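user: Kindly work through both lines:
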Amino acid sequence: MVMVIFLKKSLRDLKEAKGQFISVLAVVIIGVMFYTGLYSALDIFSGAGQKYFTEYRLADLSSTVYRAPEGVVERVRAIPGVKMAEGRVLQDVPIFMEDRNAVVRLISLPDQKRAVVNDIMLKAGSYFSADAANQCLVSEDFFKANHLVIGQTIEPIVNGERVKLSIVGTVKGPEYMYEIRDATEVFPDHEKFGVIYVQASYLQTILDYKGSVNDISVLLTKDGDSKKVKAELEKMLAPYGLVSTVEKKDQISYSMFHSDETGLQSMAAIFPMLFFIASAVIIYITMTRMIENQRTLMGVFKALGYSDWDIMLHYQTYPLLVGILGSILGSLIGLFFIGEALLGIFNSFYNLPTENSSVQLAMVVPASLTALFFCVFAGYNACRKELRLVPAESMRPKPPASGRKTLLENLGFFWQRLNFSWKIIFRNLFRYKRRSALASVGVIFSMALLLIALAFRSSMGNLMAMQYEEIQKFDLKINFTQMLAVDELSTIRNLAHVKSVEPVLETGMELTYGWKKKDIGVLALDREAQLYGVYDRKGKAAILPSDGVLLPARLMETLGLHTGDRVTLRSYYPGKNTDRDKKTVVVKGETSLFNGQSAVCSMDYIDYLLDEGRVVNGAHIKLDDGQYEKEVTAKLEDILTINTIQSKAEVVANTNKQLQSMNSIIFFMLFGASILTIAVIYNITNINIFERRREIATLSVLGFTSAELKSLVFNENFFISAFGILIGAPLGRFIAEVAIDTQATETMQLPMVMEPANYLLAAALIIAFTAIANWLLRNKITAIDMVESLKSAE
């Protein structure tokens, strides 16, 4: 019976303040929605990825050599700790697809299907058969992007000749789950790069690798020591021109997957908590006002014999209802809409098999418990003070707060210049300092959310500007099939519409500093190079030294290096990769690289390191007009020594296209911030108007217009928002730095850039959300019954 009476009263209270109830409910829904959506997407994404890597045996170690006999694979299998080892032939070759050029990576697979390291998942068609030797399997994304069909013949160019390959199926492999050519690329471009698997016997024949391999993939046992196996593997392969040995953690697909996985974890840990804390603050403010206004009624309840537990349970109905309804609605939206949408955004780059993943209902329990905890905790703290009072004390009206000068009133030069309305506003703010501070919490979190979203956007914009305007100033980049003398670039310089050509040599080396070793790339440029910019971490142009090297700042931090330190570099070229071939070099400075870990040096200095003379294996080309790019590219294709051609314009276009997926995430953050700000301002304004009914009625009688009365309340909201903006700005910057830094890997990083415009835009949005909340309450003040309000006892 008692509960029925209290329930009826609770329903009446909700009916009288349904706007406040809906607004705080919306905040809880957003919090639970983000929690279930993010963790659901994370659980499916992470589970599918790890299962994929395990089932299809992603290599723990991958070594690239110039050429090694197939027999060396058996010796690798005999290394303690090695479970499986596979030798392959691998080579990048150009291919012409419809109206564009592309590059495909030819990789050998056993002629007959068997379990191998870096295995493949057959998506359509069939494996190789004995019908023909030139059958191939094409990566699914490249297959779809180029509108290929099973049974079609494609013709990659191998050693200057077209080779016919017949497509018998489409596949997906863990090694190229994130299908980019190398670490210098940011996003996959499936139209321009793909992987083609060919029968080992046939690929060895057309590449002239009969009985040889140039890539060895190793899978370790559970107790295999990666470092010991790697050391033994490199020692064994050194005579065959070891180019590099990549550990699983540094493998591109695995590294990118782990980076996105970490990013999702950061979002899941931060965003829901902001909304849960904000909802607790709103509930605390709302219930504190409700209980203070019903203080006399609580005294009556206690005098009639109701226990503290009964009264507490009655007032907990409000936060419990908010928590339960918010959990149900938020979970439904989070699991079936937000989670699916976020999973689609992140999985669009990987195409993981998530079709059979079940709805993560297990996420509902922790999300609901967390929401209920914050709601009930806030409700309890709002009630406990009043419940300590004896009935006689509770039935007395709460004495008004003692009046005294505010801090601003003591600043005479400032206070005297304020008009009457602003004096009322500041007095009310300082009179209820605690409530004003708590109300600003929601605005602070909203500002932080907006700045995080805008920081990601501006950081990516800065990366694009630096990478493709300041660093890569060329229009085309070409790679040769072999080392060429610098003088041979004159053929390319003489082509029509070619403005300038600069030599490039890219190679791999082993860097040693004390006991630390690292496989790195080395990029050699002319000291007067104009088509490739080198910058330090402060964004200043770095001078290419005549001797010594510049190292990436992140690599120097990892190895504990400083400018002036000496390191040793060892080439991977056969015959020049022994310990006696090591060269001691001086670190002359640092460079800022967004992806990859390449040292930079001059063309003259690479001659000292390799002792090969002035040779190149690539070049940067600048055109006199970008409209002639296709014409120049067509002429370059006719030069047999050119292996691949990369267009910067196409890379930029693809990157911009992929970045559009970020807009969805920014929209989620924008939506959440708007709900949070509007809910906080709406609730605090409702309470403010209710408590000041008599004051507003009195001012109206004294001649204040409707607009002046509204300004008293609404300008106070703008002041609270301004305070929240000031505090939220550094908080947002800090969280953005943490979130972006957690996604960095050894080979890829995104420097955090917070443009001044971000602060202005975020502040403008907060003010706009505040204005919307004020607009929703525009009739609340004019609807006050002045006669009834003036009758009420003080």
